[in-house]
Amino acid sequence: MRLRPGGVHCRRCNLLLGGGAVSYPDKRTLLVSGRFLSDAFCTINHLAVPAVREVDAKDWKFDACAYYRKDVTTICVTRCAAIGVAGMAWSYPGYTVDRTPYGVLQHELGHHADYVKSTRKGPYYGDFSVVMRTDVDEKPITSYCPNDAEWFAEMFRLFVTNPDLLAKTRPGTHAAMREHFTPVFNDSWRDRLTAAPERTIAAIERKLA
What we know:
This protein is mainly alpha-helical. 44% of the residues lie in helices and 6% in strands. Strand 2 (66-69) and strand 3 form a beta hairpin.
């Protein structure tokens, strides 16, 4: 892995996004690529890389498919979403909605960043996210926003997977993130979504119109 601040430095991170993929990856592949991206982001930003602990579905006791506690992300890969191509399934790596293992790992990485950057800390969050949300005062990027910590984690997920799309949709939050973090990717939101379904691109174009 070659790292260059502000650029696309990790070929394995970039494997699924902007690579002209002809078929959609399975959840295991999404997890592996998501881990490479998380590691690259942490390396660039001098953050400790959180451990990833997998739990089998038969032993999983939660509604959510993952959670973060100090320095560890615990995930049930089979409970995560697959790439959405029809109906109400919209998850796609680098889109505003991404509950695939790829996106879930970056969401939980957001809790890790929040925790590390905070002065006052709870079990998986801190005051860093509270201050940022208060300062930028922008609407959530998805419907999953029960509190400041989840508002931040969803914004952070998109900042990691498709920073240009965050800049286009939530410019204040993107600017605040850039004050503290350097993104892995610096290409356009379309480049991040080269292989996405046409309806995904159309949905973004409607949002930006």
